[in-house]
Amino acid sequence: MSSRCNLRFLIPGLALLLGGVPSVLAVWPQPQQIRNSAERYSLSARAFLFKHADVSAVRSGCDVLDQAFTRYFTLIFPESGGGGTGDTGAALINTLLHCCVYMHSWNLILNISGLESLSQLVEQDDYGAYYINKTEIEDFPRFQFRGLLLDTSRHYLPLQAILKTLDAMAYSKLNVFHWHIVDDPSFPYQSRKYPDLSKKGAYHPFTHIYTQTDVRRVIEHARLRGIRVLAEFDSPGHTQSWGNGQPSLLTPCYRGDVPSGTYGPVNPILDSTYVFMANLLKEVTSVFPDSYIHLGGDEVDFSCWKSNPDIKAFMKKMGFGSDFTKLESFYMQNIVNISTMLNRSSVVWQDVFDYHEINRPRYVVEVWKWGCYLCEVRRVTKAGLKVILASPWYLDLPGPTHDWARYYNVRPLAFKGTEEQKKLVIGGEVCMWGEYVDATNLSPRLWPRACAAAERLWSDEVQTSSVDQAFPRLTDFRCRLLRRGIQAEPLYVGHCKNEYQGI
Amino acid sequence: MAAMGALLKFGALLLAAVAACVAWEDGDVWDYDGHKLKDSDFLALWPLPQKVQSSAVSFQLSASRFQFTHAEGSSAGSDCSILQNAFRRYFDYIFGFTKKDRDQRRRNAAGSEVLELQVAITSPDAECDGFPSLTSDESYELSVDQPSAVLKAPKVWGALRGLETFSQLVYEDAYGARNINKTGVSDFPRFAHRGVLLDSSRHYLPLKVILANLEAMAMNKYNVFHWHISDDQSFPYVSRMFPDLSQKGSYHPYTHVYTPADVKMVIEFARMRGIRVIAEFDTPGHTQSWGFGQKDLLTPCYTGSSPSGTYGPVNPILNTTYDFMAGFFKEISTVFPDAYVHLGGDEVDFSCWKSNPDIQKFMDQQGFGKDYSKLESFYIQRLLDIVSSTDKGYMVWQEVFDNGVKLKMDTLIHVWKGNEAQYQAEMARVTGAGYRTLLSTPWYLNRISYGQDWRDAYKADPCNFTGTDAQKKLVIGGEACLWGEYVDASNLTPRLWPRASAVAERLWSDQGVRDISDAYVRLVQHRCRMVERGIPAEPLFTGYCRHEYSGV
Known about the structure:
The structure holds two protein chains of two kinds. By secondary structure, chain A is α/β, with parallel strands linked by helices. Chain A contains 17 helices and 17 strands. In chain A, the strands form four sheets. Chain A has an eight-stranded parallel beta barrel with strand order 8-9-10-13-14-15-16-17, surrounded by six helices. The longest helix of chain A is centred in the middle third of the chain and has 18 residues. The N terminus of chain A is likely disordered. Chain B contains 18 helices and 18 strands. In chain B, the strands form three sheets. In chain B, strands 1, 2, 3, 4, 5, 6, 7 and 8 form an eight-stranded mixed sheet that branches. In chain B, strands 9-10-11-14-15-16-17-18 form an eight-stranded parallel beta barrel, surrounded by six helices. A two-stranded antiparallel sheet of chain B has the order 12-13. In chain B, strand 12 and strand 13 form a beta hairpin. Chain B is elongated and about 85 Å long. The N terminus of chain B is likely disordered. Classes of the chains: A alpha/beta, B alpha/beta. Chains A and B meet through helix 3 and helix 15 of A and helix 4 and helix 16 of B.
């Protein structure tokens, strides 16, 4: 890891010892190295400044940092005006005047993470005065890909719900928003080129869609928080809603010799399909700047293809026999090629890898199935492909018990393999599928359980191996989320100083 | 003598209890021509009324012209605050808070509009200033026609239920105008006790959350808020007589408590919606938090021959305990107007009692031997006498009955344990012994699982046990319970709704209403209606509402 960020609080002058070490050191996720002492410095909302350090590669004018300064100032001093530098005793305490932000690398994202840690170190004493302990942190993420999937097709999520989720992701240092934007039930993405897709495929053509402006807003909101937006346009399965606005895209299913009137996956034997997909993906890559694009490829139901005489004729012509996985591979191969031509790295669900054993294109494989998921990780890395692990983090499944520890105890690299193989595991992802989730219950179902996965993906595994040690920190962090307006549910009995104020 | 009075009073209640387990009607829905209608024709009604007659004839409602009026001859008038408040509430629900007349078109000539809903309270005493009770009459009859719709109910309580039904009949047409079809409804609840339990001890629930859920309860025709207000973890109830209980026993003595004004507000807010508030002060177990503010109330536990510094259940052998309980429950009986108080009595852990030499000595004196359930009975017995002397009836969890405590016949036994076979056997035993009972076992909604678990809640029926008709008449209803170990303001409402709606229909509608796919169609609509009314009720499955939840 070359891109390390040092966050040091350099305090000039005297310091006064105030009591012992704070009970809970609540930086979540746990930094790689943290040294703190009982020395306390008070912070005054009136005097405190963020400054670019002399050695920093970035000066003001960097809008990601400038905006982050504003945001974190409010997070640190929630009662703006910050009159909290109480009279009692405060005069005796040295004041931390500014935080120097160093830029050791060009990576802005890490710097934002540093601000997050800083904001989590600031506490309020009994008199309401803000203080911070003398602390040195050296920190970097264990995995570069720390994702969270939202599904906006099973249920439409209002923009506000997505933006709130991005805020909470930043607090947990998650850095990829995987936007599973379309699926069978609805197509809310408003395409410039194919407006009929959402006009006829969304739940409602005006109220239940994402306009281009909405999408830009999500991307910008994410960018300012160091979060990538990975769009998924899942095909050839999971595409029922596409068919409403794009005639002849889907395969007509047959009953006997006649079309049954229902449709199956995308029709892989028509040239028009690939023209459409190339146009759509061209638009998508111009809208979503990330270098990755998610192409789906999961859970293709072959029964419709099997029923269709044209497909059968095509299979014969191509020499696929009756192996429909070959047909799917043929389709995915074409789609991955389109994405490669558009200069994008493709991400696919593991099904694509499992079906296609020779001449695999260079895609990233997202492992999602249950069972021995590490066996699959091992197979994929053995084939030299990168892996994103999602299987153990399907948070839409509420456990019978409250089970954050289950997400915490995951060991993503605990498989037999070479160092090279392990390096191919680029990270993991929390998935919140939408069958039973919409804006009414999304936040409490995500948080703080997703935080457990966030720490696993960011922090050192040895340092964070104990559930018992994590519990009080996570409890504390959950209260911090509440205070910041994130509707995070409780881990167990207890209370927060500031309870959730909505209903 | 006071106890005798209570006995007579509740004996009368017993006779008046709704014969809930004996089917009255077959629950089918007919149109005016006698055709059986598909249930999906009543998309929006939840819980399904006992009898509905509907037709395709539709009328408009105009926000600028429509009025709620007191019918001539009604025993309630404009001084009836329950109705006046309800009129305002339902006006907002019906016209979507815009209060603008969206329909400028005036679709066609006269005769197509409902101009008013006349509300007629038919019995001499409307009970406008009263509190709802176990015997409150909640029946009503609704007839929607032009130019006037008429809602008739013997008491305001039925009128409240009828107003909810009326508001559920109103739908928006493609132009955004409000419409209602010609309809006749005749309705009454199957069970008299239809409750929701919230736990404000494991987590403190801000007042706003409690009020919002009372609002949602009214939308589902619930009529009991069972307030499990204190437990081991915290004691948020501010007692006038024993202020130290919350001062020292709550999570925070100012921000995490319910002041007398708060409690009053909850009770009044509930009364306005025809909902009773039954407070539960659970003893002798589940009382750790009481110990901080009331010295010597809890039993000191021993390790060997010396006190370990920890405490167990309420100490049942001291007179001071009973003096305290007498004072405390006297206060409770004046603060909470409902005729019942829930005394808990569940899950008493005997290990601390066993360790304490004074308790052992007392056991010997009393001849209890090693049977600590006898000691529990001894405590409960005295507590029941204390509560009886305040003129209250009481509910207890089933253990009190199971442990053979001698109970008065007016005690309500709350069944919560076991699997299906076990709770059905328990219902049979309790009613076999002649006690009235209510069921919660299948409705512990704090238990969650993947998928549509509302169906299990919907399928359960309190009368599914082997017993005589007389026994089944002793079933007064049930309660959905949302225990608070993992629930606070952040997740309470979506976890409760619409799953508690499933229980609501089981407790209100006819026994024969059990078609799960029909229920699904109606419940999807009903949950969207709750969302539109500001309640973050979670989705049943994939799909959408026209107006999604916007409170993020």
